[in-house]
Structure formats: structure tokens, C-alpha cells
Amino acid sequence: MMTESTFKLTYATMFNPPEELHTRFEQVLADLKANLGQEHGMIINGEERFAEEKFEDRSPANTDQVLGVFQKGTAQDANDAIADARKAFPLWSSMKWQERVSLMRKAADLIDQRTFEIGAVMAMEVGKNRMESLGDIAETADLIRYSCYQMEKNEGYIVEMGRDPLVGYTATNTSVLRPYGVWLVISPFNFPAALTGGPSGAALVAGNTIVIKPATDTPFVVHLLAECFRDAGLPDGVFNFVTGPGSTLGQALVDNPDVDGVTFTGSFDVGMGIFR
């Protein structure tokens, strides 16, 4: 049987994992259970931020288990996160795309290295079995790497086009796709890793800055992903992580005129409300 070090976890291989995978998962899960209930801040402009009001993140499998305490961010927190993302945009968007690719690959590598730690949190926070949880984390790293691959394949999306076929007329045409601005990444509870990391990776590698808001049911997994972005060395303000209710924090994010785009996965009503 393959060892854990050579086993590539995907949704196709998850049905026949090596025994070492289960052993490692049980160890990490035990460590997690011994350290539940800690408080976790938001990340705005590279700094941890705490709010006056908090909310508890409880396991759906056992609602007596408090997984962590998170911040009930305010409209001011939302506006600050967007303002800092806007300030960081000129530096990040003007950085060579190869440098952005390098940083995002570091983030993907960190997600891979922390697969079991993040996967154990997902199992307890979302209620998925361990293989579904680990598969979601592995997919997250792969999605980020795919965006990096596309940037390289398309040479930063600066492509020389054909010349005009007119006799006696010479012109050089170049297609240039540029970073768009500040994006919101609003992710769902059921795939909190892949549907946060995938859109975030694509936006970031293309030179946009982001504000991430997870579902209030799953802030823990997304907080761990945000730490991977931070630890990979992304400049302050390039990514921001906020938590809180959609009715207040989320609405303030969507209503802010400095937001250039939104990627959202969730209910029809909320999605159409954002669209309108």
C-alpha cells in the first residue's frame, strides 16, 4: 500500500487511503479537541482585530462543543477592511505577475502542509467525514495552483496579437488584461475551504486585493486559510479576513462603493440581492 508521504489525496483516491492517513488524522483531531474554545480575531491590514461583540462557533455534530470564539465585526470593520484593500491595490497590482505567482504557490504549499490541521477543523465545524474534509483542503491548494498555472501559461495575460492585414499599413496589437480592483469573497458553509481559496487565489494571482467573509457557521476553517495567506508573505492589506452576520457586516461590505467585484456562493435570494 502507498505510504502517506506518496499518497495524493483527491476525490478519486479518497476511498482507499493508507492506514497512516487515519493515524495522523486521529492524532491531529485529539490535539484539536484538547485546545477548543480559543478566541480568534479578524485580520485587517495584516493585524489581528477584535470586536466588542463575539459569537461562538459550535460543532453541528455536538452543539455542546464550542470550537472557537469569533468576532462579530461591525460596519466600521467592513469599511476599514475595504479601505485597506484599496490602499494595498497599487503595490500588489504593479508587482510582477511572476512574484505574485511565487507568493501564491507558497500559500498553496502551506495549505498542503496544514491539510490535516485544517481538515480536522472542517470535520468538526462542518460535520463532514474525514476524507471529504481532507479532500476539500487538498482541492483548495490545487485550485490556487491552477490559477498560478494559468497566469504562467498565458504569460500574465499580456499577449501580442496579429498584425493588421492592410497593404502599406503596419500596426502592432497587444491584448492586455489588467487587475480589476478590490474583490469580496463571500464563501458558503458547505465547502468553506475550496470555495474560499479557489476564488481568492484567482483574484490575488491576477493582481486584485480581497476581503474574505466566511459564513458564520464556518469561520474557523477560513481563518486557518487566511493564516496561510499571511504566513506566505502576502503584503499587508492585500487580503483581509472579517467575520460577522450577513445582515450587518455582510451588507456593509456589499454596499461599499469602493468594492469593484463580488464572488459569492450561497442562497438565491442573497445572491440576487447582491446582483441587483
Concise structural overview:
By secondary structure, the chain is an alpha/beta fold. It is built from 9 helices and 11 strands.
Give an overview in words.
There is one protein chain. With 276 residues, this protein is an alpha/beta fold. The chain has one domain (37-275): Aldehyde Dehydrogenase, Chain A, domain 1 (3-Layer(aba) Sandwich), CATH 3.40.605.10. 47% of the residues lie in helices and 15% in strands. The protein has nine helices and eleven strands. It has helices spanning 19-33, 75-94, 97-113, 115-126, 130-153, 194-205, 219-231, 246-255, 268-275, and strands at 38-39, 42-44, 47-49, 54-58, 66-71, 158-160, 174-176, 182-186, 209-213, 239-241, 261-264. The strands form four sheets. The chain has a four-stranded parallel sheet with strand order 10-9-8-11, with helices on both faces. β4 and β5 (66-71) form a beta hairpin. α4 (115-126) packs antiparallel against α7 and α5 (130-153) packs parallel to α6. The chain is globular. The mean pLDDT is 92.
CATH topology, by name, is Aldehyde Dehydrogenase, Chain A, domain 1
Tally the helices: 9
CATH homologous superfamily heading: Aldehyde Dehydrogenase, Chain A, domain 1
DSSP strand content: 15-25%
**From the 3D coordinates, which CATH architecture would you assign?**
3-Layer(aba) Sandwich
**Low-confidence spans:** none
- By DSSP, the count of extended strands is 11
> What is the general shape?
globular
- N-to-C SSE series? HEEEEEHHHHEEEHEHEHEH
Distance between the termini: 53 Å
> What would CATH call the class?
Alpha Beta
* pLDDT averaged over residues: 92
What is the strand arrangement across the widest sheet?
10-9-8-11
